[in-house]
Amino acid sequence: MQPDPRQSDDAAVSWSLATRVAFRFFVVYLGSFCVTFAQVVFAFTGVLAGLLPDGAVIWQMVALEPLTRWFGRTALGVDAVLVPGSGSGDQAAIWVYVAFLLTVSALATVAWSVLDRRRRAYPRLAAWFATFLRVCLGGQMLFYGFAKVVPTQMPSPPLAALIEPLGDLSPMALLWLQVGTSHPYEIALGAVEVLAGVLLFIPRTATAGALVSLVGTGQIFLLNMTYGVPVKILSFHLFLISAILVAPEARRLVEALILGRGVGPEVRPALFDSRRRDRLAKVAQVLLGAWVLAGCLVLNLHSWHEFGDGRPKPELYGIWQVTDFSVDGTPRPPLLTDELRWQRVVFDNAGVITYQLMDGTLVDVAAESTPDSLVVTAEDGSFAVDRADDELRLTGRWRGSPTSVTLHRQPLEDFTLRNRGFHWVQEAPFFG
In which domain, by residue range, is 172 found? Predict the structure, then answer.
């Protein structure tokens, strides 16, 4: 068996003390982060992801919570409770988790540096660590990329958003609506992330994938910071991993792209001494990438049909303008001070309705709707439904009082956001 000349002997290479210490720290910290942070490992479940329980995506953090919560109370004076279903990756409990990993990694680095002080370099371990980071980053780029290529991360603006004042939106809601308004734009953003993920799983194109990821994750981190998106912790770490993967090739990139000098082909350290095993490792990485890609595609297609734009629409889908609202047989005029009368009712998703009060407040409530009835248990509401095309009459009880409501469906094309369309020729900017 012939040794691979690309693999340097540890004894023949010497790193500076700072490089050795930094390497040890990042191996422990980023290694433990990638293994324990929410969906990083989840991406590798591929097409089996849909068979796992709902909480599978965050099981590692849930398992670690007793330890991290104790650390928070003892070391930081913070008793932060993890809320698995909140949708936020920046919870106080997750910041405590990060502080815990940093502390453990610092202590482990000190111990490693003392016990292994004679080792001058780690070229073989560095090759394996870079491969590990590369596939973890690639999995996340595919995970988030396909959520845009199949527009489920930022779906089309919900109907209620069309009647909500702009000033009432949070920065994050505004960002989501802006991206979701144009599916071609969202798909293009996702395609860049998918491209980065695919390139990262192919060893020969890994540096190109890391470069694309560096730009992509940098933009994502900036948006998360400036629009208040609670994925700042993960996006920063993905940006950091991208930078670490690009760093070894930084000098060659500067010489080729900025100084215009010729550079030789990239020499990527081998994972094994055997060329055959190294080739098999490369094939395994590509197959892993294909598995993750297939899983992300299947997951997002399912999401598209379950709660995305491809979902089944309710029978009364649309925005309904209230033309008459009577309680106990007495019509209530459309006064802004009336706290009971509705202004509009929105049917968008099955199992919920949104009604708008006269002061503009939008209220979401669980509701059971059939072609003949509408039941809103939380508001003590029960109505018989009488519909004729775009006219609707609800007769029954609301908050314990006999109530009848007459509504007219408002054409969605009345909204500029829906009817503006695309124009090659524009004589002036159009702001509505």
Answer: 122-311
